[in-house]
TrEMBL record:
Residue span, HTH lacI-type domain: 30-84
Protein name per Swiss-Prot or TrEMBL: Transcriptional regulator, LacI family
Lineage top rank: taxon: Bacteria
Name of a matching Pfam family: LacI
Biased composition (Polar residues): 1-15
Region called Disordered, residue ranges: 1-26
InterPro entries: HTH_LacI (IPR000843), LacI/GalR-like_sensor (IPR046335), Lambda_DNA-bd_dom_sf (IPR010982), Peripla_BP_I (IPR028082)
Species name: Schaalia odontolytica F0309
The entry's keywords: DNA-binding, Transcription, Transcription regulation
One function term, GO molecular function aspect: transcription cis-regulatory region binding
Amino acid sequence: MSQQSKQSKPGQRTGVTPLAHDRQMSGQRVTLDDIALAAGTSIATVSRALGGSPRVAAPTRERIEKVAEQLGYRANIAASLLASARPQILGLVCSLSQELHVRYRAEALRYAEDRGFRVIVESIDTSRDVDRAWESVLQLRAQAVIAVDSTCISTRFPNTPAVLIGQRAPRRDIDLVTSSNERGMGQAIALLAQRGSRRIAFLEGPPGPSARARKAAFTQACITHEVDALTVPGGDNVDAGFLAVRAGLPAGVDALVCYNDQCAHGAILALLGDGLVPGRDMLVVGCDNSAIASSRALSLTSIDRAPSRVASLAVDQAIARALSDGGSPARQRVETELVVRASTG
């Protein structure tokens, strides 16, 4: 063999086979076969080494890892997960139009990854119904599904382990993680009463367990603190809050508690449009303590639902379901807490 034939191709890394180099240059995925050929070992040894098996000697593992890095190898995580008899995959079905759901998603992804699980997320909206969302995550072999709110529970898959982040489980076999409304709402009404409010209106959310639970906590807190409780049709978005206030509030209302922060955002925009200053002319409280609530632009007093704690409990329970085949449904409760900002003076 001539000296020239032994030389690497231009741009080829030392120790990289011509085949692997050609794959790199053409953009093709580097395979375990390429690594085994370049490292002078078997595919099985490469697989064990890259998988962290203790059966591979340290010098061999280091050599294989170095070759894999030189080749630019990237593990096909999806393929390895799906090939498992019981892959470490969870599903998460939510509505990403809701800021609280976005926060639950972020916290669940982070915590599940720390536990060695992948999370497949599906969002429901007007073009994506809940049954299709569940079907999608189950097709990708999710071993358990976390649903954010009861509207994200499908009735078509009753045998799939499910964990609900919400107020009330529609089936007895579903695990439930709920954030209590009573404490945070009680703190909110106590604060408004201390600020001198006597007629407080609640801008309601869309029909469902969450809206009913928040309204019930509001009503009870108003009774406890001896202030008038009124309700106004609202919703879960900015337009709903804006239109509710523009339509006119009941006479004498001096404070608003809104179903969520997005609704409160709309209410504040309407108040400003009418020349009223939140925190001075009208006290306003939101729910969920979202990013918009903590912004300097809004500075909204809001009830924090401890999303990090709620999401971690839901992930823990989903993993427990994914790794087992039974057990009684769990019921876990997390307390809420009022975060005070400028919108309440």
